[in-house]
Amino acid sequence: MGRLDLRDDYLDTDEEKNALAFAKHHYASKVRKDTGRTYLHHCLEVSRLIHKYKYSEKFVIAGLLHDILEHTEVTYEELENEFGSEVAEIVSGVTEDPDPTLSWNARKLTHIQSITNAPEGVLVVSAVDRYHNAVEILQDWLKIGDSIFIRYEVGKEQQKWFYRSLTELYFVKGLFYENKALLSFSEKIAEVLSHMDM
What we know:
Hypothetical protein af1432
């Protein structure tokens, strides 16, 4: 896996540039606790990959803002007012239930169930997000091995269950939508996981 560069030159429409400014303002310098990298870095990479596969502007913007509801104070209404209902619905669709009383397993199972019948945009953003997450885990795993999983709420086997469950879902939905990119990301995630014996 190659180095992931922080690039935004693919964002060339006015709406995409507006979304970038919005993302920079709200993500600011917030750091992901699991990788130590910024949310902005992760979200730029997710949206860049979506753009690379020639998805719509709305999908690209949703990829850029996919963590905005879960990790900032931005509300669904603010997101909808700024970027429209399609973007807001995709971002909401990939956002996990914030209920603090739910266990990790319950939260992840609820999330899998919620995206099972989700629109194509939710599945695309979810798949690319999980792929990039897996790549970042692999990059650190190559340095320190399975001890990487100490930083997470649960261990390697539960992470494997979650990622493999999603991979199967993306594959089935890729067939349903005849979406070659979704099928590709299902395969890419599986390949990354196999490097870590997951």
